[in-house]
Amino acid sequence: MIHAVPEMFKPKIRVEYPPDNKQIFEEWFADNVKEIPGDRVYLPVNWTGFQVNNDYGNGRKMHDLQEYIDGLDRSKKYFTITQYDDGPLVDFKDLDIKVFGSGGGRIDCPIPLVCMPHSYQPDDVKTPKKRKYLASFVGSITHPIRRKMIDYIISLPKEDRERYFIFTDRMPIETFCQVMSESVFALCPRGYGKTSFRICEALQYGAIPFYLSDEEDNFIYPFPDELEQDQCVWPMLGDYMHMLHSTLINVEYPHLWQREGQLVYPEYYTFDGCKNKILEWLKRLS
Prior knowledge:
The protein has helices at about 25-30, 45-55, 60-70, 145-155, 160, 175-180, 195-205, 245-250, 255-270, 270-285; strands spanning about 40, 75-80, 95-100, 110, 135-140, 165, 185-190, 210-215, 235.
């Protein structure tokens, strides 16, 4: 069952992020799901759009959203989906609800932070041996671990440093995708939220995501009951940043990591794949 949420709580997000992502996953899910298995009612509030559009959760309309949540039938069980970095910014109180989350805040069922596939398509997916860069990072400095990572790479000897592509300014999306397709590893440090869209983007282009976070509890591992993270994503704590380069150059059989990533990507990191996994999870929650 899908709950009839008022349109005021389902606004389209006013920003396009990451670039080239024309619709965020929680909006797309609401537009494309037809039947809900199990006994939970889908609550299609667009948390990310509503909260971003309302001063990132500080606007006066947040009071209206809280009143709406307070008025929901407490005899029913619900679920909702959000990618917002801090999760739903309301007090659910005694509401029986499961949050499928990808950014942070309250997460009962972790899902990947997914975006639409970029339109740029290289002629072929190059093997690791044929790629230009050992690793790349294109993005802004939205968390201290990103600065720590860049400072570390800058400190490397020149011959090692030149194996990386690091850029922290704006870049045309096609150039970004070309860099990703030429990288053996994609450095995916967390930003303000606990994870990064780069994991999804890297998998699209056959790069191996190297997921960096500041604390063990801050890693988000999607679909933990069935997806083994070491199949395709390599996690590392910032405390071990001094081992980053030696770890990358000593990864055995990177072509196997690449192959696993290409298998995992359509099943878990695309909109359709993620939707199907959520629906499977709902069956188990019944």
